[in-house]
Amino acid sequence: MTRPITAADYIKGFLRLIRVQNLLIVVGTQYLARIALIGPREDWPRLLLDGRMVILTLSTVCIAAAGYIINDYFDVKIDIINKPERVIIGRYLKRRWAITAHQALNVIGCFLGLLLSRWVFAVDVLSVSLLWFYSANLKRQPFIGNLVVSFLTALSLIVMAVYYKQNENLLIMYAAFAFVVTLVREIIKDMEDVRGDARYGCRTLPIVWGIRRTKSLLYVIIAAFIATLFLTADSWNNPRLSWIFMLVLIPVAWLVYRLVLADTRREYSYLSNLCKLIMLMGVLTMVWA
Predict the structure, then answer these.
(1) Is the dihedral of CA 187, 19, 120, 128 positive or negative?
(2) Dihedral of CA 69/70/71/77: which sign?
């Protein structure tokens, strides 16, 4: 006999649906960038309570939450195969309520962006549009879906460069870091989910190219990005950045080593989590940038 679903179950299900832990990481990343990269750092207590920053972060969080909902909305059948224990829509939340929550969060997010500036609003509208097309179709296409979701991740820092117009170079550099790490992780996730994706006609890179060629592409992306990081530090004549990149290089080297050996769904899941750790390490280096 199954236990009846309680109000607490619905709340927990919704929080899992919007990936509340990921949203908290977005909030932390934006605030750390505001204090450490834009500054002034010594004024951090005031910056934590800055009304404009609160609105910007809420706008980003609402749109990101809406993106998670619409992604799961379109992926229910695939997730039943790949991650049955994580399916929320249809179990805790009806489909019509999911799409209503998605639309409401998008409207709130874009309205908050408009309160700040028309350029933030434009970035928000772009994000909403890309999230819809990504979830509905692009994520099932080889590589383009990976590029789109990686660009959307980078937008959480790009929008700060657009609004504050200070230290844009550093903000864009960290946005590029987020873009590449997310790109690598998304491709690895496609390798992890290849069974369910293939059953429902997705044409991700591992399905179209095969695992071996997909791995080769990842090696090229990682090598090119590492070279770009150190060339950037050299061109800016910033030894501190070089040391930061050396620190991040350690887990990246471990990622490449494990990627060479990876051959099972469990191993690809480990690599996906390792990418999260690398992203977190990269974000924390803002303190020393």
Answers:
(1) positive
(2) positive
| Residue ranges in the chain modelled with pLDDT below 50 | 1
247, 266, 267: which is closest to 257 by C-alpha?
267
How far is 73 from 88, CA to CA, in rounded Å? 9
Question: What was the pLDDT predicted at 205?
Answer: 93
**161 and 175 in contact (C-beta within 8 Å)?**
yes
Q: What is the pTM of this model?
A: 0.90
User: Facing residues of 93 across strands?
Assistant: 89
* Closest by Cα among 160, 159, 138, 157 to 147: 138
